[in-house]
Design goal:
mainly alpha, 338 residues, single chain
């Protein structure tokens, strides 16, 4: 019988340098917003325009609290499982280091190219989110831009990396195969239910205001486009390929989860609401990118580390809630569905 990995309490976790640095970074982001924002933020956020900067900080910290509670719940639900050793799924350390640096450079190049190509077409830069996601946008987003965004991201961050690494590594080594389907399905159901209820209570998504015809067309369209443009790219690039390599290089689950959150945040650098027209606006944009995406990116990593299955976060905490649940009205508007 395989021995269980050692358990670490909260005190031991808080003594880890990576956790301390993450906490300092989070607190610093809060302080920066209070110091720089003044009475209003420079972002085009139609769905949250009435909130003050302090109100947005409260929202961000409550979202972090929810993620921490979901993390505790995930640990409780997986405590009796034989946990996978993801570090063993990565190559030896020197190879893992080269592959990690290559992937990060490749991801940065993908963001740069996505910026250039989208600007040439007169669109918003291609990042991990389509313009108008989550916060909304007053800018017009065309069907052509939506399809091009999804196609670009799917090819650059999912198809090409998967083809490259699948030639060298098995599906299990890339976290693409479940080691316990029943347990994974149960975990997906619990997390999806909780996250859906939270999204409904907090965001009051306009999905429920759509007509039956709009819902029948808009929900599958939203699911498909965001699966291609956001969910699968994040899953393959970060949680299938990078997470085992982060763990091999750091030897720390906590550091791996934090790096997963930071990488997920970085892929949203071109969100349509970010403003880099002045140093102050740039600092606020970076702060809110961290406050918005760091915690969800970490929780996706937690689900992957605890199950060894990158598909778990897809169904539990990305494709359906929030994207299909929250962004269906946006797609109905973009494609002018009646």
């Amino acid at each position: 019988m395989q021995p269980r990995p050692p358990r670490y309490g909260l005190t031991a976790l808080l003594h880890k340098r990576s956790v301390q640095l993450a906490a300092i970074g989070w607190l610093a982001s809060n302080v920066v917003v209070l110091a720089v924002a003044g009475d209003a933020l420079p972002f085009d956020w139609p769905t949250a325009a009435a909130r003050t900067p302090a109100g947005h900080l409260i929202d961000a910290n409550l979202a972090l609290a929810e993620v921490l509670l979901l993390t505790v719940l995930t640990y409780r639900l997986t405590r009796s499982r034989t946990l996978p050793n993801l570090a063993d799924r990565a190559p030896e350390r020197s190879v893992a280091a080269r592959e990690t640096l290559f992937l990060l450079a490749y991801g940065a190049a993908g963001l740069a190219l996505g910026f250039v190509l989208a600007q040439l077409a007169g669109w918003h830069p291609f990042g991990l989110h389509l313009a108008g996601s989550i916060y909304g946008t007053h800018d017009h987003v065309s069907p052509a831009e939506s399809i091009a965004w999804a196609t670009y991201n799917l090819l650059v961050y999912a198809v090409v990396p998967l083809l490259f690494f699948r030639r060298r590594y098995s599906a299990e080594a890339l976290n693409l195969r479940s080691g316990n389907r029943r347990a994974d399905t149960f975990l997906v159901g619990v997390v999806l239910l909780i996250e859906s209820l939270v999204q409904i209570a907090v965001l009051a998504p306009g999905t429920f205001d759509l007509s039956p015809g709009q819902l029948v067309l808009g929900a599958p369209l939203t699911f498909t486009l965001y699966l291609a443009g956001a969910v699968l790219p994040a899953m393959i690039f970060i949680y299938a390929i990078l997470i085992p390599r982060f763990l091999r290089l750091t030897g720390s689950t906590a550091a791996t989860v934090i790096l997963g959150g930071l990488t997920y945040t970085a892929l949203h650098i071109w969100d349509a609401w970010t403003v880099f027209t002045s140093p102050g606006n740039a600092v606020l944009s970076l702060a809110f990118l961290l406050l918005t995406y760091f915690a969800p990116g970490m929780f996706k990593a937690v689900l992957t580390v605890r199950t060894g299955n990158a598909w778990v976060h897809v169904w539990a905490y990305h494709a359906l809630a929030p994207h299909t649940l929250v962004d269906a009205p946006h797609m109905v508007h973009v494609f002018d569905l009646k």
